[in-house]
Amino acid sequence: MRPSNSVVPTSTTDERPVGVQIRAATAHDLAEVGRIAVDAYRADGQLDESGYEAALRDAAGRARDAELLVAVIDERVVGAVALCPPGSRYAEICRADELEFRMLSVDPAAQGRGVGRLLVTACLERARELGCRAVVICTRAEHGDTAKRLYQRLGFTRLPDRDWAPVPGISLWAWQRLLDSTPPEAAARN
Predict the structure, then answer these.
(1) What positions does the domain N-acetyltransferase occupy (predicted)?
(2) pLDDT by 10s per residue, the chain, length 190
(3) pTM of the entire structure?
């Protein structure tokens, strides 16, 4: 079961952006998903000589080997995330009872409006649907302070025993959110 094509309403009790839809990516979305990923990682200083830009741009590959979700405002893709089950091509640190998400990116023009939080929340909901015990993610150790704060607000904790380096000079920190009865949006308000 994939996330519904629902629009997130505005509310006076939370900070959700108005009119954001989270849905499965379509073939029509893929070029824009690749562009957004590259632009978002570049804006955060995370593109270097590691060759990661080509992987970020390859949204078609992600769509073949992972479940790709997009955030849409007014029919325009503004963010995306890849859900990677254990053993899949893009899974790096997840175990049998976990779902991993990767390459979460929000168009720099749409950042700061809660789109990333909604994408993470969709990942948590999807993991619950699949019966997973936890959700995991990696961040660059030396970059991504905004993302790290977001993950902490959503209940993720560090997993130093799963930190790793995909190539020399790049250190990744592992994070985990155990799934319980606390809805993701309630955790974000804490």
Answers:
(1) 20-179
(2) 344 444 433 333 345 566 899 999 999 999 999 999 999 999 988 887 667 899 999 999 999 999 999 999 999 999 999 999 999 999 999 999 999 999 999 999 999 999 999 999 999 999 999 999 999 999 999 888 889 999 999 999 999 999 999 888 889 999 999 998 555 555 555 5
(3) 0.86
Q: Which residue has the tokens 């619950």?
A: 128
Number of Cβ atoms within 10 Å of the Cβ of 89: 10
Q: Which CATH superfamily is domain 6-10+18-189 in?
A: Gcn5-related N-acetyltransferase (GNAT) (3.40.630.30)
Provide the residue ranges of all domains of the chain, joining segments of one domain with +: 6-10+18-189
Six token digits for residue 30:
């893929």
Bridge partner list, 84? 100
> Is 179 within 8 Å of 124 (Cβ atoms)?
yes
Both tokens assigned to 59: 């949204």
